[in-house]
Design brief:
- The complex is a heterodimer.
- In chain A, a hairpin with a 7-residue loop joins strand 1 and strand 2.
- A five-stranded mixed beta sheet of chain A has the order 2-1-5-3-4.
- Chain A has two domains: 91 residues, Roll (Ubiquitin-like (UB roll)); 129 residues, Alpha-helical ferredoxin (Fumarate Reductase Iron-sulfur Protein, Chain B, domain 2, Orthogonal Bundle), CATH 1.10.1060.
- The longest helix of chain A is centred in the C-terminal third of the chain and has 14 residues.
- Chain A starts with a strand and ends in a 9-residue tail after the last helix.
- Chain A has ten helices and seven strands.
- Chain B is of the alpha+beta class.
- Among the domains of chain B are: 97 residues, Flavocytochrome C3, Chain A, domain 1, CATH 3.90.700.10; 139 residues, Methane Monooxygenase Hydroxylase, Chain G, domain 1, CATH 1.20.58.
- Chain B has 15 helices and 21 strands.
- The longest helix of chain B has 25 residues.
- Classes of the chains: A alpha+beta, B alpha+beta.
- At the A-B interface, helix 2 of A face strand 4, helix 4 and helix 9 of B.
């Protein structure tokens, strides 16, 4: 089977080049490994091989997938993720993950006295299956215009703690995701479509907007439409 | 300069870092990959703890652990961990771990070898959810991370105490020196030495154990490797024990059953391996469980079987084989997680705390990484608070490691290490796997020593310093060779069968000679030395 791979090395000229390879494998990752036995310079990440560590996300024909669970097709175009620093070939930096999660304060801020019950666990069950593979981040068009956007995985994780009954400081959590956060999402749903774990960040962002409303925060984008804002 | 440097950011590393930071230490976590990519995320089954005394007891948990350990689990550490288990669960709950609940209680299920249902779980994502919650907690505490750093060596000061580590910056290809008062190694196990015959992540190459061995640490019980009975045949992707627990059957190609599916992991693995040696193929039959059950309980496994094996478990039995799953041995540590080098600690799968003995009980590894990871972090923080910083200078080993990396690029490329690695995995599986014998083990050892000699003829084809994955894999291969030698020496010397270690030429357990930990280290000339240390009598 033949696939095309967009390769990158910052000190080669040209830096970006499209290569064609023959290879085989049940998954794209196996195929990349197979190609690497012949071309040792081909660079990609590999980990658990079972879709749970999140290290091997790439784009195939423009759509984010995990290489270890994607079945390659003839003439597929394989590219690195978007909106994170490309280090070499299919490897991208993951440093944005820590930055975004910290800015979103995506952790338990202050434990409440309440015990989590079955129902509350189910509310956040899907969100806590996130593997931080960055597929959603790469698919998000907001990054074309706003590099500081908190983005889908950080907002999903924020919601996961906001909705957790064990969190006392829900308001502080919401305050952390107002700027470059919940109001900047275009609700296009790309993130939901590409998530390998079936998480729906778009909906989580809507839920956060609901919480924000209850705490008296308004969507600042509405105020520019005069009578829709509160400031008139 | 830091008080505590934690190497590895899986369950053990994060637990250690959090505990040390909460104790007031300045902590730096250094890791080969991004934290949540650590192998802890692959743990599915659960984490053992006796939460309530109704029907279950801490004593029963201790008994089960000791029984599974076949004489080599030390009662003192087992008692500590089992008693600590409830605190661990309460702590994980308090930082936000989403355990599966029944009403407002944490649900528990029964795993193999447990006398009661005591594994807390989060569907089949227990490790994933614990790991991610620990990471979130570490971010809350503002713990500093330095990822994409590959551990090379432990730096020792002139007095022989720990002064820090050397790492390879994976992105730049430069060697960096990171100094600190204490170092906690939490770098994971080494079951990936079995190559394609392992359920493990590609990253489980025992780098920390290799570094510890080179620094002069003792390592112990390296011959004890747990084989999981049911890995998919061609990919070694794990099919969880939950399948057999729910009634999946093991059959050969003639449709014959040949073993009690609910026997212990090592017994089932041996029965399957025997079938395969007799020329049979072995299948895990889930077809009678029905689509609804499989979709509810094993959706990941179904998906992976379809992708990797082109088999849908709803329609056809899955072809399986046993595969290397967990390494009980590792860096020899005492009850305080101290190695034989001052200021150097180890926790998690890279360490041998003598909790699992000759065979690990399901649900005890997640417990270990949290309980003993925290212990290591606290101990290291306390030691650091009473200690001076090491001298801020360039250490000899840093220069040596820089020269070593440069030298690797000058090696002639006459032998392909990737092929050698594949071959090694294969012969280890056949001769140092489920069944072992003196002649088979010695054959592998001879091959391994030959490979050691040939390492300097295995150059790199990728000449770039930037994120050179061939370079990383070559250094990993070096670590694998180094610690596999200890595995083989341990397996050759232990002329008995116990727990996961089964010698066809010595099929019986021999307590008179071998109720003891096998301890291995390298002397000043780099020669492997071995001795036995008797298990402490229960008090």
């Amino acid at each position: 089977m033949k696939i095309r791979i967009r390769r990158y090395h910052p000190s080669f000229e040209p830096k970006v080049k499209l290569f064609e390879y023959e290879g085989e494998g049940s998954t794209l990752l196996e195929m990349l490994e197979n190609i690497k036995t012949k071309d040792r310079t081909l660079t990609f990440n590999k980990g658990c091989r079972s879709g749970i560590c999140g290290c091997c996300a790439v784009k195939v024909n423009g759509k984010e997938v995990l290489a270890c669970t994607y079945e390659p097709k003839e003439n597929d175009l394989v590219e690195p993720l978007s909106f994170s620093e490309n280090i070499r070939d299919l490897v991208c930096s993951a440093s944005h993950i820590e930055t975004l999660l910290k800015r979103a304060r995506a952790f338990l801020e202050k434990p409440s006295n309440k015990k989590q019950d079955e129902e509350n666990e189910k509310t956040i069950r899907k969100q806590t299956e996130c593997i931080l593979c960055s597929s959603c981040h790469s698919s998000c068009p907001v990054y074309e215009v706003n590099k500081n956007f908190l983005g889908p995985f950080a907002l999903t994780r924020s919601y996961r703690y906001v909705a957790d009954i064990r969190e006392e400081e829900k308001r502080e959590k919401i305050e952390a995701v107002l700027k470059d956060g919940i109001w900047d999402c275009t609700l296009c749903g790309n993130c939901t479509e590409v998530c390998p774990q079936g998480i729906d960040p778009k909906n989580d962002i809507l839920m956060l907007q609901g919480y924000a409303g209850r705490f008296g925060f308004q969507n600042p984008n509405l105020s520019s439409f005069g009578s829709f804002g509160l400031d008139f | 300069m830091r008080d505590v440097i934690v190497v590895g950011a899986g369950g053990a590393g994060l637990s250690a870092a959090i505990a040390a930071a909460e104790r007031g230490a300045e902590v730096l976590v250094v890791a080969k990959t991004f934290p949540t990519q650590s192998q802890t995320c692959m743990a599915q089954g659960g984490i053992n703890a006796v939460l309530k005394q109704n029907g279950d007891s801490i004593n029963a948990h201790i008994e089960d652990t000791l029984k599974s350990g076949a004489g080599l689990a030390e009662p003192e550490i087992v008692k500590y961990v089992c008693e600590e288990a409830k605190n661990v669960i309460e702590w994980l709950d308090s930082i936000g771990t989403p355990f599966t609940r029944k009403k407002d209680e944490i649900a528990q299920r029964r795993l193999g070898g447990a006398s009661k249902p005591r594994a807390c779980y989060a569907q089949d994502f227990t490790g994933l959810k614990i790991l991610h919650t620990l990471y979130d907690r570490a971010l809350k505490l503002d713990i500093e991370f330095l990822t994409e750093r590959f551990l090379l060596n432990v730096i020792l000061d002139h007095n022989g105490e720990t002064a820090g580590i050397t790492v390879l910056n994976k992105t730049s290809g430069e060697v960096e020196q990171i100094l600190g008062k204490c170092v906690v190694l939490a770098t994971g196990g080494f079951a990936k030495v079995y190559g394609k015959f392992s359920t493990n992540s590609h990253q489980a190459t025992g780098d920390g154990i290799g570094a510890a061995l080179r620094a002069g640490c003792k390592i112990s019980n390296m011959e004890f490797v747990q084989f999981h009975p049911t890995a998919l045949y061609s990919s070694s992707v794990l099919i969880s024990e939950a399948a057999r627990g729910a009634g999946a059957k093991l059959i050969n190609q003639k449709g014959e059953r040949f073993v009690d599916e609910l026997a212990t992991r090592d017994e089932v693995a041996r029965a399957i391996f025997k079938e395969m040696e007799n020329g049979n193929e072995v299948f895990l039959d889930l077809t009678h469980l029905g689509e609804e059950f499989i979709e509810q309980n094993l959706p990941q496994e179904r998906r992976l079987a379809v992708i990797y094996e082109k088999q849908d478990p709803i329609k056809t039995p899955l072809k399986i084989k046993p595969a290397a799953h967990y390494t009980m041995g590792g860096i020899d540590v005492d009850l305080r997680m101290r190695t034989s080098i001052k200021g150097l600690y180890a926790a998690g799968e890279c360490a041998d705390a003598k909790l699992h003995g000759a065979n690990r009980l399901g649900g005890n590894s997640l417990l270990e990484v949290c309980a003993l990871g925290r212990k290591a972090g606290l101990e290291a923080a306390d030691e650091a608070s009473a200690k001076e910083f090491p001298k801020n200078r360039q250490y000899e080993i840093t220069k040596r490691d820089s020269a070593f990396i440069k030298a690797l690029f000058t090696l002639p490329n006459k032998i392909d290490f990737v092929k050698k690695r594949e071959f090694l995995g294969k012969i280890l599986y056949s001769n140092a796997g489920v069944f072992r014998s003196e002649s088979g083990l010695k054959g592998v050892l001879a091959e391994l020593r030959q490979t050691q000699k040939e390492l300097s003829f295995m150059g790199l084809k990728d000449r770039s310093l930037r994120y050179n994955t061939e370079l990383f894999e070559f250094i990993e291969f070096g670590n694998m060779i180094e610690i596999t030698e200890a595995l083989l020496v341990g397996a050759i010397n232990r002329t008995e069968s116990r727990g996961s270690h089964f010698r066809v030429d010595f099929p019986d357990r021999n307590d008179r000679s071998f109720l003891a930990h096998s301890v291995i280290w390298k002397n000043d000339e780099g020669v492997i030395c071995a001795e036995y240390r008797r298990v402490k009598e229960s008090t």
